[in-house]
């Protein structure tokens, strides 16, 4: 049983709802541990093709838990390698869709950016306000935000701590779609179901290839993509997908 998250599954989609409403879903270490465990289980489950992470109408997550962090010391954070566990979220191999309404601040924004697709409600507000607390982003904010929205906007957000609304986030390339708040979960689940209906290994290899773009030169990335593309012709799902198209019927992927 989980104390800080709700975990459900339906139609090959896992759904994790952050559930610390009194603290606007602030990410304490217990919540992060539960989240990583649930994501890891979905990642290894052959009946799950995609996961949605969401919060409440008011907050996706208002950051790392400030009350939990306030008394920490440098040797302690270093020795414990604070937030190392959170890196495991970005290491998941199956896609994760973040459905964001309300505040996605600090660690909340960083959590959304560790997901593969961010869908925002028109109420969403993103920001890296850590500087106002005398710290800075600690689970990838300075790196992922810069890659997603560019250096100028990332610098603006990280140095002023201001919030950016959903329209600005979409314009900047942080989120892929903005929808009315009432439709957020339906839209995110539909996206996840669509992904989960594809061949799982192809989905995973595609995620890996897209992520390569952040890690390598264009020539290396293209080479990696070509090798993986060639390898897909060894799968039954390539045969099925192309046969289904030619026979004008939906594919029945076997995920292999
Ligand atoms: N941590 C702990 N408690 C929080 C947090 C938080 N990040 N955010 C909100 N809360 C609590 C409040 O203390 C309050 O509790 P209580 O009712 O007991 O007083 C409750 O949630 C409701 O909050 P507010 O009364 O403040 O609600 P408002 O609507 O007035 O304001 C805001 C909403 C603007 C979101 C405001 O709560 C706020 O500014 N929160 C802090 C945002 C922030 O600074 N986030 C960054 C945190 S630092 C961080 O994330 C570092 C990242 C490093 C790695 C992270 C790893 C996961």
From TrEMBL:
GO molecular function per UniProt: enoyl-CoA hydratase activity
EC number: 4.2.1.17
Keyword Oxidoreductase among record annotations: no
Enzyme class, spelled out: lyase
GO biological process: fatty acid beta-oxidation
Sorted UniProt keywords: Fatty acid metabolism, Lipid metabolism, Lyase
Entries under InterPro entries matching the protein: ClpP/crotonase-like_dom_sf, Enoyl-CoA_hyd/isom_CS, Enoyl-CoA_hydra/iso, Enoyl-CoA_hydra_C
Reaction catalysis annotation: a 4-saturated-(3S)-3-hydroxyacyl-CoA = a (3E)-enoyl-CoA + H2O; a (3S)-3-hydroxyacyl-CoA = a (2E)-enoyl-CoA + H2O
Superkingdom field: Bacteria
NCBIfam families referenced in this protein's UniProt entry, alphabetically: PRK05862.1
Family: Belongs to the enoyl-CoA hydratase/isomerase family.
Purpose: Could possibly oxidize fatty acids using specific components.
Name by which UniProt lists this protein: enoyl-CoA hydratase
Native source species: Enterovirga aerilata
């Amino acid at each position: 049983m989980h104390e800080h998250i709700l975990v459900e599954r339906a139609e090959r989609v896992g759904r994790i709802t952050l559930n610390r409403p009194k603290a606007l879903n602030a990410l304490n270490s217990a919540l992060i541990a539960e989240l990583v465990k649930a994501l890891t289980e979905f990642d290894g489950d052959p009946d799950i093709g995609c996961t949605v992470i969401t919060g409440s109408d008011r907050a996706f997550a208002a950051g790392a838990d400030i009350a939990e962090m306030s008394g920490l010391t440098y040797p302690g954070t270093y020795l414990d390698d604070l937030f190392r566990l959170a890196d495991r979220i970005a290491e998941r191999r199956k896609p994760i869709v973040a459905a964001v309404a309300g505040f996605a601040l600090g660690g909340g924004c960083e959590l959304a950016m560790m997901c593969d697709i961010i869908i925002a409600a028109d109420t969403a507000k993103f920001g890296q306000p850590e500087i106002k607390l005398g710290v800075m982003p600690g689970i990838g904010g300075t790196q992922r935000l810069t890659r997603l929205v560019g250096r100028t906007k990332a610098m603006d957000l990280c140095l002023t701590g201001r919030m950016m609304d959903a329209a600005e986030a979409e314009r900047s390339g942080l989120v892929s779609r903005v929808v009315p708040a009432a439709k957020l979960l339906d839209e995110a689940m539909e996206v996840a179901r669509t992904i989960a209906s594809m061949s799982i290994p192809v989905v995973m290899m595609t995620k890996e290839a897209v992520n390569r773009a952040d890690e390598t030169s264009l020539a290396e990335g293209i080479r990696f993509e070509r090798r993986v593309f060639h390898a897909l012709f060894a799968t039954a799902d390539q045969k099925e997908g192309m046969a289904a198209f030619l026979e004008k019927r939906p594919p029945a992927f076997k995920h292999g």
